[in-house]
Amino acid sequence: MIPMIQNSWKKTAGQRWLMPVLVVAGLGTSFAVPEYALFNKYIQLVMMYVGINIILTVSLNLVNGYMGEFSLAHAGFMSIGAYTAALLTMRVLPVMDHPWLFPLAVMAGGLAAGFFSLLVSVTSFRIRGDYLAIITLAFLMIVKSVIENIDYLGGPRGLPGIRKLTTLPWTYFWVVFSVWVIRNFVYSKYGRGVLAIREDEIASELMTVNTQRVKILTFAVSAFFAGVAGALFAHVLQFISPRVFDIIKTTDILIMVYLGGIASIGGSILGAVLFTVLLELLRPSNTAAILAFLPDVIFNPVNQHFIQHLGVWRMVIMPLLLVLLMLFRPHGIMGLKEFSWFIPRLDLEAGHPAAPEDNIHEPA
Amino acid sequence: MSLLEARGVSHYFGGLCAVDDFNLTLEPGELMGIIGPNGAGKTTIFNLLTGVYRAGKGSIRFGGAELIGKTPHQITAMQISRTFQNIRLFKDLSVLDNVRIAHYSQIAYRPLEAVFHVGRYRREERRIINRSMELLAMLKIDHLATETADNLPYGLQRRLEIARALAVGPELLLLDEPAAGMNPNEIDQLMELIGWIRRQFDLTILLIEHQMKLVMGICERLLVLDFGATLAEGSPHEIQNNPKVLEAYLGEEPVG
């Protein structure tokens, strides 16, 4: 047994350098881009949105992908995080003098969202499937209407004047942190418990898995990072209102999860990047810019007309892409698969004889 | 002291009495079989013992502790483990992970250690992977460890279910129709396997089975159920010659 493990380890070790290289390269980029104005403000903004969407997607995948539930509450947790953090930076913490307090506010946003996740996880003990979807939808609507009715939070008019504290390096830090934590969670006994619940809840109880505890933890981790993403989002947008965090927001996150692939962190990252960037590219002003880059061959009046009007059709094109995806790859781009260099070595080597043939693996 | 003691256990589904005044005493190390026609309440008894259903009446004591009112994961963590009539593996997961999951209650680390992969995480994971591989090796399916459980042939899925049940570290093992769908040759192998794990893991075994060959071959004591009621209890020989059993279950023909 041992020689085989060694052998396969050598084969996959070839790609393991990718992870640290990517992390360091990303860190460098996140500092260099704003510092040397490598891209204009708009692109920097899109990069931050990509980061926030990665956090949202990976965290929702924990519940909707790994656990196989269908939660619609994610935007609700996001708004709890956003409002908590915004209140802290506006009215409590002296962030102007001490900008290092900002991560504390983000953390608090995450913790607040994590706390409220108990409402959802406790109901999920007895209720699952479509019924849980309806309950999470109700949760989302309750959060929205509660905020709308509290004057201190600005009511339906929202909360303007939030400082722009989210920077590219901070976004990057939280992306790495959330991806790392969720990946660690997935490759632990709790993560295996989550997968077991998706497969067969009663059988997992009978295999000693404390399913209630696993559900509480999973919803808490998922909501925590939704709250973190909300906090970052509030400090980019500088204005939040209950309407920002409605069912449409949840739908966006759902699309990114199912586009990237269920039960795959790599897939979620891919899904978030693709969806965010595609949607931005399809804006009318951007389609015009793309047009300018295209070679003359296809720069004829017909194409010009088509591409210029692509923007109008963005909300048709995206759903259409999704329909096609569901038809041809129902599990999403990387559904139930993971890059081998992304899997902790312990799990990758576990059990092993067969050396992996490529860099894509079934989840452990 | 007896290992398992069920006293006056009754259970109703709505108005239907599924199990009526069920009594059972299991001594440590025993191998007992429950037989009875379809719908007699055999699997319901397993579900009552493991907490899937909560018995409406009676008491079930295991090693002195009351089981009624406990959740299934609490009961299984007390070292009662089972397999299922219709195989219930985690079929999209690997063979190894199926066995790893069953170690859940034996893994000592806490959520924060899991989330940051620090503290006891690495040591515990390594220990459980090794234990799981040992178990798979004992059941001769370790070469399939990374295979998806669903891809295994039927007989090996049954074997994996037993491996998974053993991973819980049971004192008492409940086997629900382990020979279902097996040919005589496979049944012989299974009988050998059950005898072997019983000695190897020092188990008390309670099994449900329709295959008379297996029941008469390895069980030391039998309990016959019919319509939720206990019809007879005794050694295979006594059961075979019990007129009530012959009438209700085995028919007129003698069993060979």
Can you walk me through this structure?
The complex is a heterodimer of chains A (364) and B (256). With 364 residues, chain A is mainly α. Chain A has a domain at 39-246. Chain A contains 16 helices and 4 strands. Chain A has helices at residues 2-13, 18-35, 41-66, 74-92, 102-123, 130-148, 168-186, 189-199, 201-206, 211-237, 247-260, 265-281, 284-293, 301-308, 314-328, 345-349, and strands at 159-160, 239-240, 338-339, 360-361. Chain B is an alpha/beta fold and 256 residues long. Chain B has 2 domains: 1-79 and 170-256, Rossmann fold (3-Layer(aba) Sandwich), CATH 3.40.50.300; 89-163, no CATH class. In chain B, 38% of the residues lie in helices and 23% in strands. Chain B is built from 10 helices and 10 strands. Chain B has helices spanning 42-49, 72-77, 95-101, 111-116, 121-138, 154-167, 184-201, 212-218, 236-240, 243-250, and strands at residues 4-13, 16-26, 31-35, 57-62, 65-66, 80-82, 172-176, 204-208, 221-226, 229-234. In chain B, the strands form 2 sheets. In chain B, strands 6-7-8-3-9-10 form a 6-stranded mixed β-sheet, sandwiched between helices. In chain B, strands 2-1-4-5 form a 4-stranded antiparallel β-sheet, with helices on one face. In chain B, helix 5 (121-138) crosses helix 6. The radius of gyration of chain B is 19 Å and the shape is globular. The mean pLDDT of chain B is 93. The A-B interface holds A 1, 181, 184-185, 187-193, 195-196, 199-200, 202-211, 217, 221, 336, 344, 346-347, 350-354, 362, 364 and B 50, 52, 71-73, 76-77, 81-82, 84, 88-97, 100-107, 109, 111, 114-117, 121-122, 125-126, 129, 132-133, 142-143, 145-146, 148, 164, 167-168.
